[in-house]
Each structure stands twice: as structure tokens, then as C-alpha cells.
Design a protein that fits this description.
With 589 residues, this protein is of the alpha/beta class. The protein contains 22 helices and 17 strands. The chain has an eight-stranded parallel sheet with strand order 16-15-14-13-12-11-10-17. Strands 2-7-6-5-4 form a five-stranded mixed sheet, covered by helices on one side. Strands 1-9-8-3 form a four-stranded antiparallel sheet, covered by helices on one side.
Length: 589
């Protein structure tokens, strides 16, 4: 008998936001004990027919799950099952299983198990999250085929049946086929030992809108000793057998969250306008179709940054033009008439090394963004064609990332012009006047922003990258975190220079980095002349509340004062004092 442990905190990856408190439901995938039994020659053909019938049945069920996933979570959630369909339709795999049945005189279930375990093991050997997910997909499909070959033995059948009341599902990993069939009324949250931010469990948890933490190391060692769990989908913490004080603290957070949510939803419908009647746009940063619901929920003015990278990172292969078009078109349709700014694929070879062969010693300063895409013209062309095809409602704009010089802008625009001509000849409807912008995130682009502004329709300042490149401090490196400062005077001057260059050419400028959602930074950015903020959807009410308490003239004085400073500390001190006077300690109230 396991002894109950005292409070224990485990750390994982925050996969889906929210706090869940409840009893654990331990879900262990049933081990498939498939014995090797000899099949007489006259039964071989029957085993092959059984296998083919099971394939068809499995395919039908995967298609049904895809449809359910689409209803719950849109294109991205449904896309997960496309990789399962690719596996079920893989002729090499099918032929290999049939050959194994014939050559070894075995039952089809044994052949499926042996052949697919071989592929699964090959993927597992590759130390890469993408390939680990592919191995898990193969295991899921394999189990489904075997289940349909042995209808009297249903391994892993409907996980929901075992849940008593509302519980937190705990497992080493969750199959997509499990998750899509969950009864949401019984599900408080999800915790897994394996998986990452882009794992299927993470994507589907967000689709279900339940808190989730994945990739919790040593989970299996401790969790069966827990009678109560708290999962923090914001920090990635899993707390086992919480102390009374911890329980009360999280219970209060949960209550405050629900109350805050009600207040924020009421506040979000109010106009985003300053005390001196300046209208400010508050848009959202998203990376999937799923998040469009939050854009609508929080009354955002649209999408200031649609990151396309996650679509490529989480797919089985390079997305086709039609696959991309379906995603962008769905986002455009769901948010119409709100505007949607789609960023051209901004990814380094280090992130696509399983699909594109690129050797990089320093991917952050190497072949990334447009540099990578110019080296792979077919990928760039299909990507741009998909975006432009989806623009027929005239609410989509294109933004060019990681620009260092004017040549990159002109080269991209020339290709867009060529693609528009081709699409017109092919009879596709699209927005012939689609707006084209540039991300200002490399210092050289900020320094020549006045020249770039003549060639484009708008700017978007990416302060995350701009800060790290201005200060030569990797934002992901804790050892230089004290140097990575968004309030460094050099960063502020770059932002000021960019906004002024845009104003001179009368083009729009937004800011989509984390700085846009940082309360202390909002008065400074308004003072520098920024009139468009793009933030994580749930931050829209917070930013709006702050903006509605500010006067842009006073903010302008504040910005001029900050531009004269020589250190981050001096700027932070000035902003803190101003914020305390104008906003108070709690901007959320």
C-alpha cells in the first residue's frame, strides 16, 4: 500500500491556462497482450481480409473524430487527425503488414503490433519532440486497428466511463482518440508525464478549454500517492496533496479568477478611448484557429499578429497550399470584418530541421524568416499563394518578418505581385489591394525605417526580438536576463524612431511584442505616439482599462522625459511613479 505524501510540487509545461482543483483519475492505457499464434495457410487470406476491414473501420472512426475535433476546436484540432489518416493510408505500412501475415503465418493483430512497433521505436530513438509525437500517433493508430480486429477486447475504450463525477485526468500521455471523446462535464483538467507545448494533448486541452500541464517529469513516481491535486495551467505547477494554506490560496485564486472574468467580460465591450478622446486599437496575437474564439470573446479589434510557425512545427510534413488556405480562410471568415495580419512564416532551419535540411551554428543570427524562405522558393510561393487566396474578404494583411534591409522588402513585394497575376489568371478571387507591412525587429530596419516606410503600408514593432538584438542578449538565456531590458533607453529610442518614420509617411504602426501588454509600458508607448497595441487576447481588458485612464498629452510629456534617460533603472523609476499616480496599484479593478 502506498503511503500518502505531504504537499509535493512538480513542474511541467503550462499547456492550457486555468486552475483546477480536484481528485485524480489515473488513466493507464491497457497493455495489449497479443500472443504469436500460428495461422494455417488456408486462413492467411481471411486474416488479410480481416486486416483490410479493420483499416476501413478505423479510418471511418478517425474521420468521425476529426469531425468532432473540428466542431470543438476548429481546423487546428481537426488537423491532428490528418496525421492519423496519413498513417492509416500509408501503402508501405499496409503492404508490410500483409507481407508479415503471409510470411510468418500469424494473426493480423500480431502483424500490426510488430510492424507498427518497429516504426514507433524508430521515431522514439530520435531525440526530438516532433518525432516523439509521431511515435505516439503511430501507437494510437496501431491500438485502434488492433481494437477493431479484436472487437471482444476493447483496450482503452472511452476513458470518460471511468471518471467519477468531475476529476483531473492523470496519465503518462493522452491519445488524441481519448481526448476528443472526453465528456467535458466530467473533466476538470489534464496532467501528463510526457508532451510539450505543441503536443496533441496540449492542443486538444486548449480546444476543450480545460487547464492542462504536460511534460511533468517523475509524475508516475509520485501521483499515485496523491488524493488531491491542484494544477496551475499558468505556471505549469502540479501540486499533490496541498497543505490547507495552499488549498485555500488556490481556491481564492480560482474564485477571484471567476469574478475577474465576469468583470473583464463586461468591461471588454467598452470603447478603447483615452481621457482626451483618442481612439486606440487593441488587437490580439494568435497562432491558431482555436484562438479566434478568444479574439471575439474579449472584444479585440482583430488580429495584430497571426503567427504561422506553429502550423508548420506541429504538422506531419510541410503544409500544402490548400491546407494553409483552409486555415487562413477560416480565421478570416470567423473574424470578419475584423482585420487579420498574417505574418509570413518566421522560422529558422533549427525548427524545421526534420522537414528542411539546414545546418545552423547560430539560428538566431542565421538563416531565418525571409532568408530561409528565399532559399526555398517553392515553400515561400505556396505560403504566399495560400494567404492571398484567403484575402477575398479584404480583411487580411501580410507582414514581412525579420527584415534587415530594403532589398528583402522589394523582393517579397515583387513576388507577391507575380503571384497575384497568376491567381488572377487562374480565376481565384482575392484582395488585389492587400496591405503589406514589415516587422521592425532588427535594429538595421529601425535605423532605416524612414526608407522602408515608403515601400509598405504599415509597420509592426516586434519588441521581443528588437530588444534582444539591440542589447545582444538572448531573451531565452537566464544568465543575461539582467541585460535584456525592454526599458533600456536604446530600445525606447528605436521604438520612437520607428513611430516617427511611420507618422512622417502617414502609415499605421502597431506593436505586437510582450511590451504591449506590460502595464507600466502602456503610458510610455502612448506618449511615443503608438495607437495600436496587439496582445494576448485575455489581456485586452487590462490594456483597455489602463488606456481609458490616461491622457495622451500627459503621456507625451512622460515619453519625452524617458527619452532623456541613460539607464533602464531611471526609466523604470519614472514609469512606476507615473503609473502609481495615474492608475494606482491595481489596474485590474
Amino acid at each position: 500500500m502506498n503511503r500518502k505524501i505531504r504537499e509535493k510540487i512538480l513542474k511541467g509545461v503550462a499547456a492550457s491556462p486555468g486552475i483546477a482543483i480536484g481528485t485524480p483519475f489515473f488513466y493507464v492505457h491497457e497493455i495489449l497482450n497479443i500472443s504469436r499464434e500460428t495461422v494455417p495457410d488456408h486462413d492467411i487470406e481471411n486474416e488479410i481480409l480481416k486486416y483490410k476491414a479493420a483499416l476501413e473501420l478505423t479510418k471511418d472512426k478517425i474521420l468521425e473524430d476529426k469531425k468532432n475535433a473540428s466542431k470543438r476546436g476548429g481546423h487546428e484540432a481537426a488537423k491532428i487527425f490528418d496525421s492519423h489518416l496519413l498513417i492509416i493510408d500509408d501503402q508501405v505500412l499496409i503492404d508490410e503488414v500483409i507481407y508479415f501475415i503471409s510470411e510468418h503465418n500469424v494473426h493480423s493483430s500480431y502483424a500490426v503490433s510488430k510492424v507498427m512497433k518497429g516504426y514507433q521505436a524508430a521515431f522514439e530513438k530520435i531525440q526530438n519532440q516532433y518525432f516523439s509525437q509521431r511515435a505516439f500517433d503511430i501507437e494510437d493508430v496501431s491500438r485502434r486497428i488492433i481494437t477493431n480486429l479484436t472487437p471482444d477486447d476493447k483496450p482503452g475504450s472511452e476513458l470518460s466511463k471511468g471518471i467519477k463525477g468531475r476529476q483531473i485526468v492523470v496519465s503518462d500521455n493522452i491519445f488524441p482518440s481519448d481526448t476528443v471523446n472526453f465528456n467535458k462535464d466530467h473533466l476538470l483538467g489534464i496532467v501528463t508525464e510526457f508532451g510539450g507545448k505543441t503536443s496533441h494533448a496540449a492542443i486538444l486541452s486548449r480546444a476543450l478549454e480545460v487547464p492542462a500541464v504536460v511534460g511533468v517529469k517523475s509524475l508516475s513516481k509520485w501521483v499515485n500517492k496523491a488524493s488531491l491535486l491542484i494544477i496551475d495551467g499558468y505556471s505549469g505547477k502540479v501540486i499533490l496533496n496541498p497543505r490547507p494554506s495552499t488549498f485555500e490560496s488556490y481556491k481564492k485564486r480560482q474564485h477571484d479568477e471567476e469574478k475577474q472574468l465576469e468583470n473583464d467580460l463586461k468591461f471588454s465591450v467598452l470603447p478603447s478611448i483615452t481621457l482626451d478622446n483618442q481612439q486606440i486599437s487593441i488587437l490580439s496575437n494568435i497562432q491558431s484557429v482555436l484562438e479566434t474564439d478568444n479574439v471575439i470573446k474579449w472584444n479585440s479589434d482583430g488580429v495584430g499578429l497571426f503567427r504561422t510557425e506553429i502550423l508548420f512545427e506541429s504538422s506531419l510534413s510541410i503544409l500544402s497550399e490548400d491546407d494553409q488556405y483552409n486555415i487562413y480562410n477560416e480565421v478570416s471568415k470567423k473574424l470578419y470584418p475584423k482585420k487579420v495580419i498574417i505574418r509570413i512564416l518566421d522560422i529558422g532551419g533549427d525548427k524545421l530541421n526534420d522537414k528542411i535540411s539546414v545546418k545552423e551554428d547560430n539560428p538566431f543570427l542565421g538563416v531565418r524568416g525571409m532568408r530561409l524562405l528565399f532559399d526555398h522558393p517553392k515553400l515561400l510561393k505556396s505560403h504566399l499563394r495560400a494567404i492571398i487566396r484567403a484575402s477575398s474578404r479584404k480583411n487580411i494583411s501580410i507582414i514581412i518578418p525579420f527584415v534587415a534591409n530594403l532589398t528583402e522588402v522589394k523582393k517579397t513585394k515583387a513576388l507577391i505581385t507575380k503571384i497575384k497575376k497568376e491567381l488572377s489568371d487562374e480565376g481565384f478571387p482575392f484582395d488585389n489591394d492587400i496591405r503589406i507591412g514589415v516587422m521592425i525587429e532588427i535594429p538595421s530596419a529601425a535605423m532605416i525605417a524612414d526608407h522602408i516606410a515608403k515601400a509598405v503600408d504599415f509597420f509592426s514593432i516586434g519588441t521581443n526580438d528588437l530588444t534582444q538584438y539591440v542589447l545582444a542578449a538572448d531573451r531565452g538565456n537566464e544568465r543575461v536576463s539582467n541585460i535584456y531590458e525592454s526599458f533600456h533607453p536604446a530600445v525606447i529610442r528605436m521604438i520612437d524612431m520607428t513611430i516617427k518614420a511611420a507618422a512622417k509617411r502617414n502609415i499605421n504602426v502597431g506593436l505586437c511584442g510582450q511590451m504591449a501588454g506590460y502595464p507600466l509600458a502602456i503610458p510610455l508607448l502612448l506618449g511615443l505616439g503608438l495607437r495600436e497595441f496587439s496582445v494576448t487576447p485575455f489581456l485586452v481588458p487590462v490594456v483597455k482599462k489602463i488606456i481609458r485612464r490616461l491622457d495622451t498629452e500627459e503621456c507625451g510629456y512622460l515619453a519625452r522625459k524617458c527619452l532623456k534617460q541613460g539607464s533602464s533603472r531611471a526609466v523604470s523609476s519614472i514609469l512606476s511613479e507615473f503609473f502609481g499616480k495615474k492608475i494606482g496599484d491595481n489596474p485590474l479593478q
